[in-house]
Design goal:
Elements (H helix, E strand, L loop, with lengths): L19 H10 L6 H17 L5 H12 L6 H7 L4 H8 L10
Amino acid sequence: MADVAFDKEGFLRHLDDWSPEVATLIARREGIELSEAHWEIITLLREFYRRFEASPANRALVKFTAQQLGADKGRSIYLMSLFPGSPAKLGSKIAGLPKPDNCL
């Protein structure tokens, strides 16, 4: 993992460098210990990227989560409990995806 390159914000420079081990490393840097619930959303984020070739904004992430996992998990408050601040930005970073376009 020493040869994995990150940009100045901690996003992977090369999407192909992602692995569950890299995700765990990124999460730890962000102060997050990944649980099963985190992995469920990480998997969902990677699926969103595969389908739409873009990282989701927060609103799109909430909607996609509700469609795929149900209304209980498709809520901003739930996603923020897993990925504080901006779930789309932090989740995408841990999932090895590019920073969503509309995130500061």
